[in-house]
Amino acid sequence: MLPFVGPALAVVLAYLFYTGLYCSDDTRYLIGIQKIVGGEWIDLHSNAERRLVFLLPGALFLWASGGTSIDAAIVSYSLFYVALPFLAWAVVRRHGESRALLASIAVALCPLLYVNSGALLPDIFSSCLVAMQLVLLAKWLRANREGRQPRAWIAVALGALMVFGAAVKESNAVIALIPAGFIGIDLLRRKFARTAWRECFLLVAGALAFLAAEAIAHKIFAGQWHVALLNTAESHNFQSYLDAQGHTPVERFTFLYDSLDPWTTTLFGIALAVAIVLTVATLLRRTRIEAMEWIVPALFFVWPLVYFTIGTASFHEYVPPVMQARYYAPCMFPAVVLIFIALGKREGWRDRVALVAGIAVVAMLAVGVTRQFGERGVAYSSRAQNAIRLVITDMTSKAPGLPIYDVSELGHVDLKRCRLLLLAEAGYRDADASKLDVAHLPPGPFLLYGTDAKTLWTSKAPLNQEVVRRVARGEWRLDFVGYYFADSDADDGTWWLPRQRAIVRKFELDEAAYKEARVPAGYIPWMKREMHSEIFLVTPTGEAQ
To answer: Which residues cross the membrane (predicted)?
Structure first.
């Protein structure tokens, strides 16, 4: 039962912190997933769709749901978070079952993991692949230390995972240098012995096998041979990021410190302190922990932490990478493993002290869960998703059967794509007003979906102009139905439900005022201005002039 405590806790946290669509990059991934399920070619010019191996789990779950449930596709990626505590148990178990249990729980309680576990992002998937590389490399090194020939499948799987990780997220290529470096050093240490060459051959064979499988998958789903290693980075205005995030190492690490939550910062600080102490103790030969036991997780933690902060995003010139907190999710697992290996089983009172220290780390992270709870499910533009779901809930109950046309022109293109995806899921498959032939409009009534009433009168879009013209001629009547927005505290009192479900449930029970009868007057904060929804009812008057 003990190995499943951490994964069980992860299931609970993934449910409570479930985000769903956050109306940003995830909409692009979802389009690719829907294309795979619908039998269309994915677009290799799309930075999202060409990450085919990342899309496949979501496509499998979407297909299993009958091709209709967006949440089914997103939930598939939560499983990689649930797997991480089990992997932590597997690595730390050699240092005592109590430590393995604490490590498993601690991984489940890592903020960068559970906060992002319920969203369509590559970071958790990436973190799981990195953790698997760490587990296999540790297993391979242990066999070498014990004088045994490592099993062939370990090097093959390790090679495949190195390329797999880079295919899911390009920055993982940096982390893949760690296992490649260890096997290269082993080849030099053993003076190019035949058995050492065998390991290199198996590693390369695993990588090539994955690339072959990926190329075949691209041929099936994109109609052409391709591998992710050929992908080129999407263009960014790096100068604007540099100005905001800093040019010097001190500025960039300061920005990182401000970006991370206090519990992640504390965990990283403890792990760095442990790495320094173990380095000194190993050099002085004052530790009973074998060097390779802690060096592997230390490298998997420190190397990406440093490179993702002051490394380079281009090999043509020095361009520091763009930083976001979630990009450091792959550092969480090795940081926890490093700490609990250092707190491994001892003799006498030292064991009790180490155990108490481990419990303190878990308690610190548990406090973080309670403090982070108020921010669950609000990543990026997820409040826009909540507003859209409120509209769908209200209109399907009060105006069933009426078509909805999205006429909004505010917000970025991902927001519009998000609206259309959610409306299509609810059955409004012809909601895109830009594709509507105004010459064949339904006689009415119908609903107009927008995020600003002004766009109805100022827009040059054909449907908007047709509505304005017919209203002016008295053929149609335009009525304001409601203004929908769920603020950050909208899920108060329903902690046992994910935010998006809590908001809809409270709305259905008429327990929350998420709908206003008029557009709020005065200053409106940018978040509410960008992420609310407005609905208008168009009805024929029968009084054409």
So the answer is: 6-24, 52-68, 74-92, 99-115, 150-167, 200-221, 263-284, 296-315, 327-344, 353-373
Tokens 């409106």 correspond to 524
Sole residue written with tokens 């519009």: 416
User: Among 472, 461, 393, 458, which Cα is nearest to 433's?
Assistant: 461
> What is d(CA 87, CA 330) in angstroms, rounded to the nearest whole number?
13
The whole-angstrom separation of Cα 422 and Cα 40 is 20
SS (H, E, C) 12-31: HHHHHCCCCCCCCHHHHHHH
pLDDT of residue 234: 58
Q: Give the pair of three-digit tokens for residue 369.
A: 């869960």
Cα–Cα dist 65/62, whole Å: 5
How far apart, in whole angstroms, are the C-alpha atoms of residue 241 and residue 236? 9
Single-letter amino acid code for the residue at 427: G
Q: Give the ranges where 413-453 is alpha helix by DSSP (H).
A: 413-425
Q: Taking a C-beta distance cutoff of 8 angstroms, is the pair 428, 389 a contact? A: no
Longest dimension (CA), the chain: 96
In sequence order, what are the beta bridge partners of 404?
447
Contacts of 411 (CB under 8 A, 6+ apart): 381, 384, 451, 530, 531
pLDDT value for 76:
96
The residues near 537 (Cβ < 8 Å, ≥ 6 apart) are 399, 402, 445, 447, 448, 478, 479, 481
Question: What per-residue confidence (pLDDT) applies to 545?
Answer: 43
Residue 404: the pLDDT is 92
Answer yes or no: are the C-beta atoms of 505 and 497 closer than 8 Å.
Answer: yes
d(CA 124, CA 140): 24
Tell me how far apart the alpha carbons of residues 114 and 366 are, in angstroms, rounded to a whole number. Answer: 12
pTM above 0.90, yes or no: yes
Residues of the chain where predicted confidence (pLDDT) is lower than 50: 543-545
Q: Strand pairing partners for 479?
A: 537
486 touches 514 (CB < 8 A): yes
Between CA 274 and CA 282, with CA 280 as vertex, the angle to 5 degrees is 95
Residue 97: predicted pLDDT:
93
The model's pLDDT over 210-224, given as tens digits with 9 standing for 90+, comes to 999 999 999 999 999
Predicted pLDDT at 411: 63
User: Are the C-beta atoms of residues 140 and 154 closer than 8 Å to each other?
Assistant: yes
Note whether 92 and 139 are within 8 A (CB): no
Strand order in the sheet with 404-406: 404-406, 446-450, 533-540, 476-484, 515-516
How many whole angstroms separate alpha carbon 250 and alpha carbon 257?
A: 10
Q: What is the pLDDT of residue 543?
A: 47
